[in-house]
Amino acid sequence: MSLKQWADNGWLKPHQTSRQEIGSLLAIARRDLADARADTISDDWRFGIAYNAALKLCTVLLRAEGYRPM
Which pLDDT value is given to residue 19? Predict the structure, then answer.
């Protein structure tokens, strides 16, 4: 299923992104990945932080293609 089909189904909306927005999302992902390496927090929390980084990277891909989630 294509992103256009997802948009047609109402799961995505068109979105005009910018270099600054993409850069900010990448910075959040970098920060979260660095934080997830900390051995002073629980493994569960480390996983949650890494998962958040993965979500940000998925958001980057959607925004770069001109979409955002509903």
Answer: 96
pLDDT digit string, tens, across residues 20-29: 999 999 999 9
Among candidate residues 47, 69, 48, the one with its CA nearest the CA of residue 58? 69
* Residue-level pLDDT at 12: 97
Angstrom distances, CA of residue 60 to CA of 42, 53, 56: 27, 11, 6
Q: pLDDT digit string (tens) for 56-66?
A: 999 999 999 99
Q: What does each C-alpha distance from 11 to 28, 53, 67 come to in angstroms?
A: 24, 21, 10
Sign of CA dihedral 6, 7, 10, 16: positive
